[in-house]
Amino acid sequence: MPRRALDNPIALPVLGLLLEQPTHPHQMLAELRRRSDAHAAAITRGTLYNTVAALTEAGWLAPLERQRSGNRPERTVYALTDAGREELVRRLDSQIRTPNREFSQFLGAVAYLGALGRDGAVEALTERGRRLRQRTAEDERRLDEALAAGVPRMHVIEAEYALSLARAEIAWVDSVIEELRSGTLPWPTGAAREWEGEDA
Q1: Using CA atoms, how far apart are residues 199 and 114, in angstroms rounded to an integer?
Q2: Which residues of the chain have pLDDT under 70?
Q3: How far, in Å, CA of 2 to CA of 37, rounded?
Q4: Shortest CA distance to 55 belongs to which of 21, 79, 23, 75?
């Protein structure tokens, strides 16, 4: 199994799920997608099964039992090994300690914001702000419901972090929109304007 399968970003969530309880890959996939929009978009069945196979070959997971439900095929339930628990702790410690630069599509797009022209940039950022507010309000509602239902705060701490990032992004988007509208954000002049569009 290639080493890169062990370095797949979903390896950590898989190890974390199995820290909670043994389960089979089909349930892992459903649970990872339920817990995270990012996982829902990124994880395929093939990627998950390859990752589980790599983690098992590395000795971090072990087959526990096979289950059958009705006419469905048998499913192998996996459990975290002692070595897997040690690897989970090692990865968590490293990723929490080390602030890596994580590239996002939005960051890449913002680098060329000027290409939209001033009016286009204001319109696009305004729409992004509106959508962020809608999503953040829904995420806040879901977090409040979870806490009200008795889910320990530590079990949803990542949702708090995601909300903090979203609120910071909304504040930044709003500030740039205001600067564009007021003219306090300097706009390129001369030759630098050629790639920006007619309304620049």
Answers
A1: 10
A2: 1-5, 36-42, 68-72, 189-200
A3: 27
A4: 79
